[in-house]
Amino acid sequence: MNRYLSLLILCLAPLQVLGAAGASRPATDSFRRLQSLAGDWRGTDEHGQAVRSRFQLVASNTAVMETLAPAGMEEMVTLYSVDRDAITLVHYCPTNNQPRMRAIPRADQIARLVFEFQGAGNLANLSEGHEHMLVVDFKDRDHIDEHWTWRRNGSDTEMTFRLVRIKGQ
Predict the structure, then answer these.
(1) Following CA atoms 150, 51, 59, 141 in sequence, which dihedral angle do they give, to the nearest 10 degrees?
(2) Taking the domains of the chain in order of start, what are their residue ranges?
(3) What is the pLDDT of residues 89-105, one digit of tens each?
(4) pLDDT band (50, 70, 90) for residue 20
(5) Residue 64: is its pLDDT beyond 70?
(6) 87, 71 in Cβ contact below 8 A?
(7) Is 61:35 a contact under the CB 8 Å cutoff?
(8) What number of other Cβ atoms are within 10 A of residue 137's Cβ?
């Protein structure tokens, strides 16, 4: 019986390694960068209005949850996770739709993630207002910029949030 158990373990061990190797190196490195954002952040938008954000590691560190609260708006929640060669997100918007976006990181450019629209839940058609793109610029360990693109009736409006990590978090 022990012999069969040992053989089973030897056969399954390579599958475990292959599963972990399913994510590309740039995606894994970029996701680690997102994980490193865990904590509280404050900043301003392009008009100088206050914005706050909190990044949390969830689901055994397989996802990063961001809660973003711009001045004068309701909180939004975005979940980031690795999907093979990409980082994907689902954005839970106060407009009650859930855009899905995907960024395919390049090894030479993990200081920037460009998330492109893939579809959305609860969005009857693309002319309805929805977040359509997100660009995250990692300035350094304590500074990031988020550039959100809102699309409605084919017209885009960009909102930029410049965030600084709160010390001691």
Answers:
(1) 110
(2) 24-165
(3) 999 999 999 999 999 99
(4) very low
(5) yes
(6) no
(7) yes
(8) 15
**Model pTM score:** 0.85
Bin 130: left if φ > 0, else alpha if -120 < ψ < 50, else beta: beta
Phi and psi angles of residue 7, each rounded to the nearest 5 degrees, phi first? -65, -40
Domain boundaries 24-165, corresponding CATH code: 2.40.128.20
pLDDT in tens, 69-92: 999 999 999 999 999 999 999 999
Q: Could you tell me which residues are beta bridge partners of residue 67?
A: 54, 77
| DSSP character string of the chain | -HHHHHHHHHHHHHHHHHHHTTS-HHHHHHHHHHHTT-EEEEEEETTS-EEEEEEEEETTTTEEEEEEEETTS--EEEEEEEETTEEEEEEE-TTS-EEEEEE---TT-TTEEEEEEEEEET-SSTTS-EEEEEEEEEEETTEEEEEEEEEETTEEEEEEEEEEEPTT-
**Rounded to 5 degrees, what angle do the CA atoms 35, 40, 45 make?**
105
Express as a percent the part of the chain with pLDDT over 90: 81
- Report the Cα 167 to chain-centroid distance in Å: 22
